[in-house]
Recover the amino acids of this structure.
């Protein structure tokens, strides 16, 4: 049976791991390759790098980070941020990544998802969706979410659930769903948002934004129907280890890949 | 260390070469990336990696002149490991693009028709059908990383080493003599994956030692006759 994945996310700016709250107030958290290796060793099922500088002139820096990481951490590696073409995706995969995640670029140019999926396969194409709750309209009883881009600085007219379904139809093989309301707040995942998307698509949904502790990972899978759960700061700051999270998931009856205590 | 085991990883445009070459190096092998037959000159083993579709992969192997050298290598009984698509290519044919493949093992690669999701992506447990040195030190049922939509169906079930289930059981590891095949990606499967690669390199070392001993024995015999 497929295991539910626990993914460690590293926000990278100028070749360093950083952490902020709602994408602001960034602090330096260390070297990306070193942290990725530590998480792989602790049992992370996958590593995601999000290049939050995403400026073209820094592309070389990120490719070098990918190359160093793929040489040391033998788990699947996803890179997001700043990839805008098939050729740029090829460069990232050649550097050692297994998947590329598209966010702003996919919203701006949806056919990019199709072009990349045709060239490299849907399994390599992740669509990242940053979503924010809309205020409930007078008399309405259905919660809606809007898609935001540029690290939450810009709103769009897109409904998050409709965009998720369209992204899959275009070729995305996985969706990385981040709640902008919860990101960095440690108030738990937005399980309503996750379930609204996961019940409408057949590809894996990765929950992101708001993890405070192991119980949140369990509810992201159980209530949010997520296939994988991603977190950043609770791992960086050693509040909980990947092992702590997996122990809680396992105790809740979820299939996870446990690693031997002696191997950690 | 006297003479590290030298492994050629075939580069035929079908794989991310970074992870597999670094993983083999991490378990002590000397690695060469082989995009042409001359690179196979003095190696002890060949690894055929791969992600993608069977038909274009066969075309690339043919265009690069690697097809017959690879077939001859395996037919001579020399050590070879196929990973994912590389493993599927060992069989007679694949339903993927209706391709004729290498024909080194009898059987055909078919889609996982009963899978709840395709491609089958993620960590899944690998269950032993029989004990094999490729899995020494790896607990039965350990998780490995998969990315595929097809899997081979060996005509000779005795080659099967392990199975995995994704909606339906499929063959996730085989061995026949010095020919080994894995449907999962050991180079992406953390410690368990590195252990399998280390075991492969160990098997190659044993095979190489035996053939070197035999060769030096034969040489000594020949010298003796001359004397």
């Amino acid at each position: 049976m497929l295991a539910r994945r626990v993914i460690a996310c590293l926000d990278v700016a100028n070749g360093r791991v950083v952490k902020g709250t709602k994408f602001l107030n960034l602090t330096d958290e260390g070297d990306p390759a070193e942290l990725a290796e530590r998480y792989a060793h602790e049992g992370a099922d996958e590593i995601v790098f999000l290049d939050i500088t995403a400026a073209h002139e820094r592309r070389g820096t990120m490719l070098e980070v990918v190359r160093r990481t793929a040489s040391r951490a033998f788990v699947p590696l996803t890179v997001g941020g700043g990839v805008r073409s098939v050729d740029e995706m090829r460069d990232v995969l050649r550097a050692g990544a297994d998947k590329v995640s598209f966010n702003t670029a996919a919203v701006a140019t949806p056919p990019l998802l199709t072009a990349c999926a045709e060239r490299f396969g849907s399994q390599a194409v992740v669509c990242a969706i940053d979503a924010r709750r809309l205020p409930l309209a007078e008399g309405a009883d259905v919660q809606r979410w809007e898609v935001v881009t540029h690290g939450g600085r810009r709103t769009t007219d897109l409904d998050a659930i409709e965009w998720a379904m369209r992204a899959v139809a275009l070729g995305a093989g996985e969706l990385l769903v981040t709640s902008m309301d919860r990101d960095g707040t440690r108030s738990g995942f937005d399980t309503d948002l996750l379930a609204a998307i996961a019940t409408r698509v057949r590809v894996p949904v990765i929950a992101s934004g708001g993890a405070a502790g192991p119980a949140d990972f369990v509810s992201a899978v159980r209530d949010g129907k997520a296939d994988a759960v991603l977190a950043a700061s609770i791992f960086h700051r050693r509040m909980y280890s990947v092992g702590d999270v997996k122990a809680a998931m396992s105790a809740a009856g979820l299939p996870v890949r446990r690693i031997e205590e002696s191997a950690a | 260390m006297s003479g590290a085991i030298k492994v050629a990883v075939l580069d035929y445009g079908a794989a991310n070469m970074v992870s597999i070459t670094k993983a083999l190096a991490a378990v002590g092998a000397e690695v060469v990336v082989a995009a042409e037959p001359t690179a196979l000159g003095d190696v002890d083993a060949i690894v055929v990696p791969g992600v993608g579709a069977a038909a274009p992969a066969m075309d690339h192997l043919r265009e690069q002149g690697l097809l017959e050298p690879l077939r001859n290598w395996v037919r001579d009984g020399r050590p070879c490991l196929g990973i994912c698509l590389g493993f599927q290519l060992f069989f007679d044919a694949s339903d993927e693009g209706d391709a004729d493949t290498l024909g080194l093992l009898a059987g055909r690669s078919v889609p996982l028709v009963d899978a709840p999701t395709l491609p089958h992506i993620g960590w899944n447990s690998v269950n032993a059908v029989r004990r094999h040195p490729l899995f020494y030190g790896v607990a039965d049922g350990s998780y490995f990383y998969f990315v595929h939509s097809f899997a081979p169906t060996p005509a000779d079930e005795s080659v099967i080493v392990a199975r995995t289930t994704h909606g339906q059981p499929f063959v996730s590891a085989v061995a026949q003599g010095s020919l080994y095949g894995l449907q999962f990606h050991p180079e992406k499967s953390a410690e368990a994956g590195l252990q399998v690669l280390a075991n492969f390199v160990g098997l190659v070392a044993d095979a190489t030692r035996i053939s070197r001993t035999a060769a030096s024995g034969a040489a000594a015999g020949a010298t003796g006759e001359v004397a």
